[in-house]
């Protein structure tokens, strides 16, 4: 738990609002890598025509849109995010795909503004571990699910499994421009230990818990392309880099490139590996 949850939530909303446009711009490369994760999550809620499905922290919405196709006819997807700017990205993507059985709502996962037992499935790809109070969010998830409804979530494993994200952060920590979150604080690796996922789900009242791991690969034409994308979608990375002098920025890139060069091919294209927990449970 963070020292000042209210301030953390305010700053988090501000960051996601600022990053929303970039997540829309780069959604193709993100979703290309994340496709196996999205499919696992959707399969885990056992979609069929008719139910109502809620996606939390939907961003551009691609995971939920996979479910929307499977719950039609008669089913509705509630695509939600904590900031309206992200919902705008989802609306544009839904229009592009011709998906019309979707409602867009601004929803904070820690206080889900829906009636008790009103949805049949909940999806949350890489969302809970970034919340100030994930236990409360999972309790709210359990509340809005009908008996027997399913939740499916994803959360990153260890930093060393995900060099695409951990390498720049490690080097920025060495330079002193950012600090690592304290144990228990929200962070992309806050759920690295699968036992934490298990415990939180159990304490929220879920049963029939399954936790697995899914590998992914981020592909870019070059390390420069990867770097430009990361700076666009991660406001914390951009802020840390922005605090450096030009010479320090050069040193940072040299250090990061040295770590990631092993994932580059002879043509300069890079395939950066990642690993994520995926979990599902019944209400």
Please compute the radius of gyration using only Cα atoms: 19 Å
What is the chain-wise order of helices and strands? HHEHEHEEHEHHEHHHE
Q: Classify the fold: give the CATH topology of the domain at 5-158 and 183-216 and 275-282.
A: Rossmann fold
By CATH, the superfamily of the domain at 5-158 and 183-216 and 275-282 comes out as: Vaccinia Virus protein VP39
Please outline the major beta sheet: 7 strands, mixed
CATH class of the domain at 5-158 and 183-216 and 275-282: Alpha Beta
Helix content: 40-55%
What proportion strand?
15-25%
Mass-distribution shape = globular
User: Count of helical segments?
Assistant: 10
- Supply the helix-strand structural class: alpha/beta
Strand order of the biggest β-sheet: 3-2-1-4-5-7-6
DSSP strand tally? 7
Ranges where pLDDT stays below 50 over 5 or more residues in a row are none
Write the layout of secondary structure elements.
Elements: H1 5-25, H2 27-44, E1 52-55, H3 62-71, E2 76-81, H4 84-97, E3 102-106, E4 119-125, H5 134-144, E5 145-156, H6 163-175, H7 194-203, E6 207-220, H8 223-233, H9 235-242, H10 246-260, E7 270-282
Parallel strand pairs: 1-2, 1-4, 2-3, 4-5
Antiparallel strand pairs: 5-7, 6-7
Helix pairs in contact: 1-4, 2-3, 6-10
Short note summarizing the structure:
By secondary structure, the protein is of the alpha/beta class. The chain contains 10 helices and 7 strands.
Describe what this molecule looks like in 3D.
It is a single chain. The protein has 283 residues and is of the alpha/beta class. The protein has helices at residues 5-25, 27-44, 62-71, 84-97, 134-144, 163-175, 194-203, 223-233, 235-242, 246-260, and strands at residues 52-55, 76-81, 102-106, 119-125, 145-156, 207-220, 270-282. It contains 10 helices and 7 strands. It has a 7-stranded mixed sheet with strand order 3-2-1-4-5-7-6. Helix 5 (134-144) links the parallel strand 4 (119-125) and strand 5 (145-156). Helix 2 (27-44) crosses helix 3 (62-71). The radius of gyration is 19 Å and the shape is globular. The two termini are 25 Å apart. The model has no long low-confidence stretch (mean pLDDT 96).
């Amino acid at each position: 738990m963070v020292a000042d949850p209210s301030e953390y939530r305010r700053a988090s909303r501000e960051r996601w609002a600022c990053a929303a446009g970039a997540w829309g711009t780069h959604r193709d490369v993100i979703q290309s890598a994340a496709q196996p994760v999205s499919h696992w999550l959707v399969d885990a809620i056992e979609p069929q025509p008719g139910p109502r499905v809620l996606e939390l922290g939907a961003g551009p919405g691609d995971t939920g849109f996979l479910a929307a196709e499977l719950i039609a006819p008669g089913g509705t997807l509630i695509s939600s995010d904590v900031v309206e700017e992200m919902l705008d990205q989802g609306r544009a993507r839904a229009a592009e795909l011709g998906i019309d059985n979707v409602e867009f709502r601004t929803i904070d996962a820690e206080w889900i503004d829906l009636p008790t037992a009103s949805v049949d499935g909940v999806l949350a790809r890489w969302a809970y571990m970034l919340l100030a109070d994930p236990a409360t969010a999972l309790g709210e998830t359990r509340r809005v699910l009908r008996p027997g409804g399913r939740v499916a979530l994803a959360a990153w494993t260890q930093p060393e499994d995900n060099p695409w994200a951990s390498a720049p952060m490690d080097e920025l920590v060495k330079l002193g421009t950012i600090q690592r979150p304290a144990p228990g604080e929200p962070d992309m690796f806050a759920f690295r230990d699968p036992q934490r996922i298990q415990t939180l789900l159990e304490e929220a009242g879920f049963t029939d818990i399954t936790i697995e791991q899914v590998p992914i690969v981020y592909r870019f034409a070059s390390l420069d392309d990867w770097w430009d994308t990361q700076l666009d979608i991660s406001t914390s990375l951009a802020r840390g880099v922005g605090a450096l002098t030009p010479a320090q920025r050069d040193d940072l890139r040299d250090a990061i490139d040295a770590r990631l060069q092993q994932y580059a091919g002879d043509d300069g294209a890079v395939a950066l590996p990642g690993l994520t927990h995926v979990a599902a449970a019944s209400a």
